[in-house]
Amino acid sequence: MIDPTSSHARLSAISAAGVPASAVVPAGRRPLTAAFRLLIALAAITGIVIDCAIGDVPRVLSYFTIQSNAVVAVVTLAAAYRAWAARPPLSARITGAALLYIAITGLVYHFVLTNSSSGFAMTGDAHAPSEWQTTATQLLHTATPIAVVLDWLLLTTPGRFRPAYAWQWLIYPLLYLPFALIRGALLSPGTEGRYPYPFLDVDIHGYGGVLGNTVIFALAFYVLALVLTLLDRIRPHLRGPENRISSPAIGPLK
Q1: Coiled-coil regions in this chain (predicted)?
Q2: Which of 25, 52, 81, 128 is the most exposed place for a label (fewest CB within 10 A)?
């Protein structure tokens, strides 16, 4: 039979020697955090599935919206597992990238694509969206971005983003440009959705105009990445304390 007094004495001695608590007591499981992240992944996946079910799958998969939500689904599923299994969190480079991409999706949709004064609005469709389309749109452009931001603010440790991450995160959005242009060049003129977004439409702006639009958006995305990095460093830590070893003079484990 294990003597709890002697066990506590050994733990106290280890703590007094300066050994981190995580080396003695594993980080606690966080089932509520895991459940919330599972819901985020479910929202993203549901929106993607609905869009694919009611639309042309290759065209649907070409949108940055779908791809960013897919990234969120994979990252949040992995993060949910780690929270459930009391594993260390994912790298901030990975979670920050997912946060930036889904933030871009939400901000561009609400302030550019649905804003008639932006010059790039996609609100001129003659057909009213179906209920399924509306559901998918809200999941992909509103619910998932807001949920990811809340997860970052409320359920993660601040100060993990580094300034160097800002330009590293931009690699994927910048690679999306040649993908969209090559795809458009391979499709016949007049094909619906030949270019996924108005600011990438070569037929309207020409390659020079598209390049100019890309530079403007890239700079805006870089500023957004830097803002997220700054906010991550100054925001308060809203999570409760993890399991730790108390000082021997204070009392038992807590």
Answers
A1: none
A2: 128
Cα distance between residue 221 and residue 216, in whole Å: 9
Show Cβ contacts of residue 120 under 8 Å, excluding neighbours closer than 6 positions: 112, 113, 197, 198, 199
Q: How far apart are CA 57 and CA 63, in angstroms?
A: 10
9 domain residue, yes or no? no
Structural domain count of the chain: 1
Evaluate whether residue 180 is within a structural domain. Answer: yes
Written as six digits, the tokens of 75 are 């990252």
Token pair, residue 9, equals: 């004495």
Do 165 and 185 touch, CB atoms closer than 8 A? Answer: no
The tens digit of pLDDT for each residue in 14-47 reads 444 454 444 433 458 999 999 999 999 999 999 9
The C-alpha atoms of residue 92 and residue 157 are separated, in whole angstroms, by: 10
Look up the domain containing 217 and give its range. 30-234
Amino acid at 247: S
